[in-house]
Amino acid sequence: MDMKLEVVVVPVSDVDRAKDFYSALGWRLDADIAPDGDFRVVQVTPPGSPASVIFGSSVTDQTPGSARGLHLVVDDIEAAHDELIRRGAEPSDVFHDAGGVFHHAGADARVPGPDTQHGSYGSFLSFSDPDGNGWLLQEVTTRLPGRLDPTTTSFTSAEDLAGALRRAAAAHGAHEARIGAEDPDWPDWYARYMVSEQAGTEPPS
After folding, report:
1. Which string of DSSP letters, residue by residue, matches 157-198?
2. Are 8 and 68 in contact, with CB atoms under 8 Å apart?
3. pTM for the full predicted model
C-alpha cells in the first residue's frame, strides 16, 4: 500500500504573520478556514511539492517555533539562496557537512560553501520562519539508485523540467564529443538520460 507524505504541521504563534511569510516565499495558499473563533487552519504548498504545510490555531500542541529539520529539495542551491533573499527570507550561506554525508544537528560541523565535489545531496542552506521553525534546503540533481520508479518519471513544475533538460543537454554535448559526430536520435537520448537521472539508474552511453 502506498503511503505518501501529505502534510507537515508547523507550530506558529501568529497565524497571519506566518501566512504572510510563507506567501511571500511564493508558496501556494490552498486554504484558510476558520469554522469558529478558536480553530483556524491555513494550508500552503511549496512550489513543486507534493506535500503541503499546515499551521493555524488549535491545530497542534507543539511549542511555536519548535519544528526543526524540515527539508526542501532544490536543483540549484545558489539560485535558491538568491531567491529566498529576494523574497524576504534570511537564509544562511550555502554549506556542506564536514562528514560528507547529510549534515549534523544544528550548526555543528558546517563547512562554508557547497560540497567540494558538487555531488547530489551534499549542499545545504538553512532559514527560519518568524517563529524560528527551521527549514533546510538540500541540493539534489541526481537521485540515488532505487529512489524513484523509472516507469513513473514525472516533473513537478516547468522549472523542474527545464532544469532536467539543461542537464540532459550538457550531458548530450559530452556524448557527441565522445562519439565525434552529431546524434540524430538526440530526443531519445535526452529521454533516456532524464529517466535514468530521476531513477538513479545507469545513464545512456
Report:
1. SHHHHHHHHHHHHHHHHHHHHHHTS--TTHHHHHHHHHHHHH
2. no
3. 0.72
Q: Compute the Cα dihedral for 162, 166, 167, 169 and give only its sign.
A: positive
Measured at the alpha carbon of residue 93, what is the angle toward residues 130 and 49, in degrees to the nearest 5?
60
Which of 143, 13, 171 shows the shortest CA–CA distance to 75? 143
Q: Which residue has the cell 476558520?
A: 34
Report residue 28 as a C-alpha cell.
Answer: 501556494
Condensed to tens digits (0 to 9), the pLDDT of residues 163-199 reads 889 988 998 988 888 888 888 889 899 988 888 877 7
Handedness of CA 71, 157, 199, 189 (dihedral sign): negative
Between the alpha carbon of residue 11 and those of residues 72, 138, 183, the distances in Å are 18, 22, 53
Place of cell 538520460: 193
What span, in angstroms and rounded, lies between the C-alpha atoms of 26 and 49? Answer: 12
Q: With contact defined as beta carbons under 8 Å apart, do 111 and 95 qualify?
A: yes
Q: How many CB atoms lie within 10 A of CB 91?
A: 20
Question: From CA 151, how far away is CA 115, in angstroms rounded?
Answer: 31
